[in-house]
């Protein structure tokens, strides 16, 4: 057996033994040994193979599967620029702690810096953004390489010939033994403060929804969450409530416990900074966000031994929630906020929310489902980019019966190449189309000279025509009733459907958001 086939088959066997169940492959010549070895494993039912033409899309697709399964997912690419195309997903996986395994094919070391075709310095290309990096030309053991979180890089030197020259069964007597999770003993805390608020970041620092709920219950405090859909007991519309400086002052907490990171609204961070004591719970502080500070820091959810939290303090929050709800109910009937609220009530197994305005609108306007029909909620909050959002949603959809993704028009256009390889699973893409970057109309840049050209960036494209040209079913809607009807109609189908929510102007939406906050302030402080 030639050396490249031997290395590839050995690695594929070891990866499957460690619990790998899916692999994403982008076509290429140098990565042929790995691609063929994974195909052999697929043929005997050991792994599922997904093929994506665009390496950037492939990496985000693998990231989506990793989010859905909490397992390492390999993405296999050829040498050269193919490797560099993985970098956006690597950064997202690093900052969110997702399990992404990068298998990059390389020329033999002797060809580096010789001008050989498609040969560059791939080993170490991801620098500090991988938790482990191996450069190998011969078989190696995984040991503890896949026993933690975050991206891992195996750069594999394949010499010619690149195709198998023997019929030996590489998977005989294979036994799957997944690596053990790292065990961390939690600390213990006593809560002496009366006014206790738990702020839950959208990614929950990687903790499960159930463990976070149990911790919040143990504190006896009030919770607000950037993901209100997963926490029905949290006080909704928190960003509206905290938009008022006077209300923030009245609701000032004695202890704020932050789980993960708050990345959506400046009002959250302004409020947190006013607390008498701040506690942060996030494992990333140990090796990623090492300069993050607080009065008290924990890497795992601590055990609450005793609490003095005053449960009646929740009544103050609920009073302001009522004002926020009234302000929202009097707003425009068709707006980006109304779309987000409607999507929050849709029945599906998984919901992916795109970065930029969609995820902020879900936090501000959606309500948790108190009826118990819980959906899994996903987002790319590591670096919160709009790249790769369709690909991530497609990866998530491969592990769920019904998946809905709420994305903006620019995020749709940014990841359009992902639709060249479609999926059979049930995925509904709801595209909020406001012809440009709507979030900038709500930021300080709004109204500056040349705003429309460099921030608004109108594209003038028909999302419906583009989606149809990609072979997808696409419809446009302009009211909540039709939106929900189209999503429900898709629920019985397969493949990808695109629903375009045609919105009023970006300026109009920004004014609607401003009016809601002003209406809330007038109700709350008279």
Provide a compact summary of the structure.
34% of the residues lie in helices and 18% in strands.
Outline the structure in words:
The chain starts with a helix and ends with a helix. Helix 3 (55-69) packs across helix 13 and helix 11 (336-344) crosses helix 12 (357-365). It has three domains: 3-157, Rossmann fold (3-Layer(aba) Sandwich); 188-322, Rossmann fold (3-Layer(aba) Sandwich); 332-521, Rossmann fold (3-Layer(aba) Sandwich). Strands 2-1-3-4-6-5 form a six-stranded parallel beta sheet, with helices on both faces. A six-stranded parallel beta sheet has the order 15-14-16-17-19-18, sandwiched between helices. The protein has 18 helices and 19 strands. The model has no long low-confidence stretch (mean pLDDT 93). The longest helix is centred in the last third of the chain and has 20 residues, at 506-525. By secondary structure, it is of the alpha/beta class. It has helices at 3-17, 32-43, 55-69, 81-84, 87-96, 209-219, 238-241, 245-250, 266-273, 313-329, 336-344, 357-365, 389-397, 409-414, 451-456, 463-469, 480-490, 506-525; strands at residues 22-25, 48-51, 73-77, 100-106, 132-136, 152-157, 188-191, 196-200, 222-225, 255-259, 277-281, 296-298, 303-307, 350-353, 376-378, 402-408, 426-433, 473-477, 496-502.
């Amino acid at each position: 057996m030639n050396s490249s086939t031997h290395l590839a088959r050995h690695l594929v066997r070891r990866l499957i033994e460690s619990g790998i169940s899916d692999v994403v492959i982008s076509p290429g010549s140098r990565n042929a040994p790995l691609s063929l070895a994974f195909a052999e494993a697929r043929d005997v039912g050991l792994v599922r193979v997904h093929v994506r033409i665009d390496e950037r899309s492939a990496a985000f697709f693998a990231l989506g599967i990793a989010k859905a399964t909490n397992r390492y997912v390999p993405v296999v690419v050829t040498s050269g620029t193919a490797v560099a195309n993985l970098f956006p997903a690597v950064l997202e996986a690093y900052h969110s702690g997702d399990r992404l395994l990068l298998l990059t094919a390389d020329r033999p070391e002797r060809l580096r810096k010789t001008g050989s075709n498609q040969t560059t310095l791939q080993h170490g290309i991801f620098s500090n953004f991988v938790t482990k990096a191996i450069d190998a030309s011969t078989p190696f053991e995984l040991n503890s390489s896949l026993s933690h979180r975050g991206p891992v890089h195996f750069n594999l030197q394949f010499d010619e010939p690149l195709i198998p020259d023997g019929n030996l069964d590489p998977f005989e007597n294979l036994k799957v033994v997944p690596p053990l999770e790292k065990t961390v003993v939690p600390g213990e805390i006593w809560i002496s403060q009366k006014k206790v608020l738990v702020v839950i970041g959208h990614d929950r620092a990687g903790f499960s929804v159930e463990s976070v709920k149990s911790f919040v219950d143990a504190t006896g405090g009030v919770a607000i969450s950037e993901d209100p859909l997963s926490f029905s007991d949290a006080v909704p519309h928190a960003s509206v409530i905290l938009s008022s400086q006077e209300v923030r002052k009245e609701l000032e907490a004695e202890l704020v416990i932050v789980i993960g990171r708050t990345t959506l609204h400046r009002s959250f961070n302004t409020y947190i900074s006013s607390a008498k004591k701040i506690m942060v719970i996030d494992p990333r502080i140990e090796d990623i966000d090492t300069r993050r500070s607080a009065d008290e820091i924990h890497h795992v959810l601590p055990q609450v031994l005793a609490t003095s939290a005053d449960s009646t303090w929740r009544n103050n929050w609920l009073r302001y929630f009522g004002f926020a709800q009234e302000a929202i109910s009097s707003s425009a009937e068709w707006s980006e906020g109304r779309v987000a609220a409607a999507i929050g009530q849709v029945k599906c197994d998984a919901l992916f929310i795109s970065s930029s305005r969609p995820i902020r609108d879900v936090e501000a306007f959606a309500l948790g489902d108190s009826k118990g029909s819980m959906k899994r909620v996903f987002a790319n909050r590591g670096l919160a980019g709009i790249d790769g959002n369709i690909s991530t949603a497609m990866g998530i959809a491969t592990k769920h019966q019904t998946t809905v993704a709420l994305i903006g028009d620019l995020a749709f256009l940014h990841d359009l190449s992902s639709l060249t390889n479609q999926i059979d699973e049930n995925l509904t893409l709801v595209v909020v189309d406001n012809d440009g970057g709507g979030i900038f109309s709500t930021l300080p840049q709004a109204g500056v000279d040349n705003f429309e050209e460099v921030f608004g960036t109108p594209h003038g494209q028909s999302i419906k025509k583009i989606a149809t040209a990609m072979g997808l079913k696409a419809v446009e809607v302009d009211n909540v009733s039709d939106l929900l009807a189209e999503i429900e109609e898709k629920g019985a189908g397969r493949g990808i459907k695109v629903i375009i929510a045609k919105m009023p102007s970006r300026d109009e939406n920004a004014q609607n958001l401003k009016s809601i906050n002003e209406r809330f302030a007038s109700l709350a402080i008279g």
